[in-house]
Amino acid sequence: MGGGGEQALRILLVEDHDALREMLARVLHDAGYAVEAVDCPAAARRLLLGADGRYALIIADHHLPGESGASLVHAIQATYPMQRFLYISADPRATALPGPDVAHDALVPADVPRLTKPFHLVEFTDAVHRALRLGLVLVPDLLLAVAPLPLG
Predict the structure, then answer these.
(1) Half-sphere exposure of 53 (CA within 13 A, CB side)
(2) What is the mean pLDDT of residues 103-129?
(3) Rounded mean pLDDT, 111-118
(4) Which domains occur in the chain, in start order?
């Protein structure tokens, strides 16, 4: 990301709401990332197979057509265990950490960063930067961590 002939880091954005997907893709592009944005898990899987899993970060929404974002994350991690993710959702239960009242398979793994909607664009870009640079970081209303790269 920057001068010197560096290649932009690739990000895959999986968000089914058109306006939000377009806005987030533009924000990421303006921040210097190469962005591929899709509206469903099936399209994300096709891109992952074609790219052989080479994305610096996958950003996935929870409520997606045909499959939850959590299911997609679990499937991708099975194939690409070093993939980094940022999980976004308007449902606070979807961005919660596993606990006694929450089914484990309904949630992304505890080490995956999560961001609850609505969020400010500054929070979003900060979450992306941190997910790409750091291991585990706590920020108010955010849990960010490096997670594996799976696809199933």
Answers:
(1) 17
(2) 82
(3) 87
(4) 10-145 (3.40.50.2300)
